[in-house]
Amino acid sequence: MALILEKHKNCVVIKIQFEKLDAIISPDLKAQLVTVNAEGAKNIILDLSEARYCDSSGLSAILVGNRLCKNAGGKLIITGIKEPIKKLIIISQLDSILNSTPSVEDAMKLLSELETSK
Question: Are the beta carbons of 62 and 46 closer than 8 angstroms?
Answer without folding.
Answer: yes
